[in-house]
Amino acid sequence: MRKMIEGAAGAILIVWMFALGDVGAPPATPAVRLGSVLLPVMPATAATAGPEQATTTAPCPDIMAVVRAFYDSNDAGRFDASLAFLSDDATLASWSEGVNGYHMMERHLKGKVEIRKALGNPGLRRTTGRPNEPMYKEAEAKIFGDSVKFTLRPDRLRPNGKPYHPYQVEVRVDGCKIKALTVIELVTWL
Which residue of 51, 123, 152, 188 has the fewest C-beta atoms within 10 A of its own C-beta? Predict the structure, then answer.
């Protein structure tokens, strides 16, 4: 009886594999590896605007995969690898914001050289690697065209029982490269 079941299961597996097509064949869509993520590449489309010809990049098929790979590199302290996810003219805006809209520590950075210096900062990492500090998890992600907005929520309270501050993050991409990052620390006591 056992051999009959194993034989039937093997036959079903073989039929299923043939139904899928060439299992070992390369994917129909070309792909590029961004860190540990394999993303399909869509060909750029050309748009004509007067005598000049402008090239627009095709939309990114999975913005959150790019964002997670960017944060994975930052969490591991591989900041040069993180830069590969940014466009050359990327921007980073960051500040702390209180409940009444008060802004504190506002910074605006442009280009990979300036942004690299900030990649280890809170809000751009989900962990510091220290056991007594929180891990941040993406929550409430909403994708709108070429942008995604989400909150990084801490997994624990401070030793005094008060919450760590969450971060609101907005990422805009061009193709599958991060074009603009906005990181806002949501402070409850300001």
Answer: 51
Residue 25 included in any domain: no
Could you tell me the pTM of the whole model?
0.69
| Parent domain of 182 | 31-42+57-186
Q: For the chain, what is the domain count?
A: 1
Residues 6 or more apart whose Cβ sits within 8 Å of residue 32: 38, 39, 41, 176
The two structure tokens encoding residue 127: 């962990």
> Residue 156 corresponds to which amino acid?
R
pLDDT at 100: 83
Distances (CA, A) of 74 to 62, 81, 86, 119, 158: 19, 8, 12, 6, 23
Residue 173 located in a structural domain: yes
CATH classification of the domain holding 80: 3.10.450.50
In a domain, 131, yes or no: yes
Q: For the residues of 20-49, what is the DSSP string, one character each?
A: H--TTSPPSS-EEEETTEEEE-PPPEEEEE
> Is residue 40 a contact partner of residue 26, using CB atoms and an 8 Å limit?
no
Q: Percent helix, strand, coil in the chain (nearest 5)?
A: 20, 40, 40
Q: What is the CA radius of gyration of the chain?
A: 22
